[in-house]
Each structure stands twice: as structure tokens, then as C-alpha cells.
From TrEMBL:
Organism of provenance: Xanthocytophaga flava
This protein's name: histidine kinase
Database matches in PANTHER family: HISTIDINE KINASE 1 (PTHR43711:SF1), TWO-COMPONENT HISTIDINE KINASE (PTHR43711)
SUPFAM superfamilies: ATPase domain of HSP90 chaperone/DNA topoisomerase II/histidine kinase, Homodimeric domain of signal transducing histidine kinase
Domain Histidine kinase: 204-423
One GO MF term attached to the UniProt entry: kinase activity
Enzyme class: transferase
Transmembrane segments: 7-28, 166-189
Annotated keywords: Kinase, Membrane, Phosphoprotein, Transferase, Transmembrane, Transmembrane helix, Two-component regulatory system
Pfam families cross-referenced by the UniProt entry: HATPase_c, HisKA
UniProt-listed InterPro entries: HATPase_C_sf, HATPase_dom, His_kinase_dom, HisK_dim/P_dom, HisK_dim/P_sf, Sensor_HK_Regulatory, Sig_transdc_His_kin-like_C
Known EC number: 2.7.13.3
Catalytic reaction annotation: ATP + protein L-histidine = ADP + protein N-phospho-L-histidine
Amino acid sequence: MNRRTFRLIIILATLSVFGIVVVQVFWFRQAFNVREVEFDRTAREALAKVAHSILRYNQHTVSSNVSIKKASSNYYVVMVNDVIDEELLKTLLRNELEKRDIRIDFQYIIYDCANNEAVFGNYFVFGKEDIHPTANQIFPKIAGDNYYFGIRFVNKDLALVGEMRFWIFSSAVLLIVISFFAYTSFVVLRQRRLSEIQQDFINNMTHEFKTPLSTISISSEVLKNPKITQSPERLLSYATIIGQEANRLKGQVERVLQMASLENEEIKLKKETIDLHQLITQAAEPFQLSLTEKGGTLQLHLDATRNQISGDKLHITNVLYNLLDNAIKYNHKIPELTITTQNEKDQIGITVKDNGIGISQEHVKRIFDRFYRVPTGNVHDVKGFGLGLNYVRLIVKAHAGTIKVTSEPDQGSSFTIWLPVTSEKLA
């Protein structure tokens, strides 16, 4: 399956899941609205029944129409043109609501129009006999000069949602399906990315091994010629070439094996006190010579005042070699390299800056992954396995340090390593 088809499938699957979620939310909202309308109808019936009972208790004529106002989504006001007994109201509210299976905790208040004030305000909890006084100011005052009682259903929306068990169950199942889809997509994308990295590594390894093997093969064919013994210089030359290419292959194999060892945390550091400025100068010397021949430059600005660290000299040197080698390899201009050092608190920072091709932000966060190389299509003009920067990161981490990179395409790259300095000073 090619990349375009794979992306199309992922996009279509994502859109399908999104569509299902939208439909589920729509129908859930519709079901909630229906349940809310049903609750409103039932609550009004119960409150009208309470008002009628109060009027009968006071031996007044019962009107068929009782004024019930809905002040908010969960607050009702019932007009009763007569005095309201608090104990009677509480009993009637509880009984009428229970008959209609409305078991939502509520607050109620009684308004006395004679004194123009609320005379009672309590909180009733279903399943408990006791009631709790409630603050009167939470009930807005209704204009008019009539007796009325108000009732607020506490957490009504939450209670209605709790009664929609089927929709909650279906939503939970949908959530599980979406989570499974997201996890599966993540695993598939990760496996595909690893497959691409593996394929790229195999391609790079083929190119890396092909050249020395071809050279060895050609040289061995020449050495098979009996006449070669008559030219000792040619014999020595071809034998030297075979030896060099064999060592090159050996180095490449050892590099892969070494990375496997590092990944398994089998690395063992031989730490010693290192003058980092001296080490940088020594590591930069061969690169300065080769750059001079190409017209390039390598400048050192070793400004750190505390430059002594505890570390493995061989591995730290290899880290510098890797960074400098990359700065030269990934450069289509005349190379201009700079190494600077600085101190910050108890650390020393080593920055290797170049004017190379740079790296886009899309790939910056992945360049330290093992076998990863910035995609260049089918062009393999820069050799390598994609192991160098992964090695750099592992070594820096083993020395309790950190590495950061700043880069922009065609603007060069800047790698900064921070390592802890020792408390001792150089003599």
C-alpha cells in the first residue's frame, strides 16, 4: 500500500468516526430535550396538585387553572392566593413529587405578600427526614402582590442525564471504540514510520557496503593476475586498498553493534578529569586542515572559564567528531564552522554551529532517533546509517548532560551540549 492510499484511508476513517460522534451528540441532545420537556410537564402537574391541595386545606374554591411560572430552567413559582403552611407545603411537595417518580433534591421558599418578605426557605433531601435552611437571596423575587411558593430543583440537569442510562451506555461504548481507533491508528502509524526508517536504513547500509565491497572485489581480481607479481608497487597498492576497505567495513559493522550495545544500556564509561578546551582543540585540528584545503574555516571561541569535566575522553571525542563531520557533510556551500563554549551555573555549554543545509522543524525532533535520516528521496549523496546523532544523544545523556538543536532550512544548524563541570580547577 503506497503512502497516498494509506493517508486516504486514515483520513476517511477519521472523518467517519467524527461523523459518528456528531450524530451521537445530536441524538443525545435530542433525547435530553425530550426528557426535559417530560420533566417540565410532570413537575407542573405535581405543583398544580400541591396548589389545589393547599386551597382545599384552607377551604377556598379550587380554580382549575393555577398560575405556574418558570423563572429559570430549574426554578418554578406557583401563585396561591392564600396563606401557605410550611409543614403542609413540605409534605405535599414530597408526596406529589414521589408519586411522579421525581426524586430530585429541591429548595423551596414561601413568600408572604402581607409583609412583603420570604418567611420560609428550606432545602429538602430525598431519603432524609431532616431539612436544611437555605439562603433566601438565591430565589429571585417575583413581581406582584400574591402569596406564592417557589421551588428550585437542585442539580436537575445532572439528574436527568443520570436517568438516560441507554444513552450513557451507548456513549461509553462509542468512547471506547474511539479510544481503540485512536490507539490502533497510533500503532499503525508508528509501525509504518518504523518500517520506513528500517527500509531507509537498509538502503543506506546497502550503499555503504556496496562501495567497499566493489573495491575489494576489483582489487582481488587484479591480484589474481599472475603478472601482478612483476609490479611490487601495484601489488602493495592493491593490497593496501583491500586492507583499507576491509577496515572500513569493519568500522561500519562495529558502529552498528556499538549502537545496539548502547541502546541496551551496556555502555561503560571510563571517566577521568578532562580539560574540555584542550580536547576540543585536538578534535578540531584534523577538520581544520581539511577545511583549509577546501577554502572553508573552523573557528574556536573557547570562552568558558570553567572547562573541566568528568567524562569518558574517547566518547566525548567521538561526539565532537560526529557533530563536526555532519556539519561538513550536510553542507553545499563553502563550510564555515564555529565552536564556542560558555558557562551557565555549574555547566559548560559546547555549541557547534555551521552554515549547512539546515533541518526543517518537522524533522528536528526526530534526528536523534536511531536509524533516522532526514528524507532526501532516492538521492544518497550523503553516506551514513543515521546512527551518529543517536550516539551523540546517548553519550551526552550518559554524562548527565543535555543536547539541543536550533536549525532552519538553508540557514545552517546549531547543536549545543550542556555538561556538568567539576568543582576542581585546572592548575
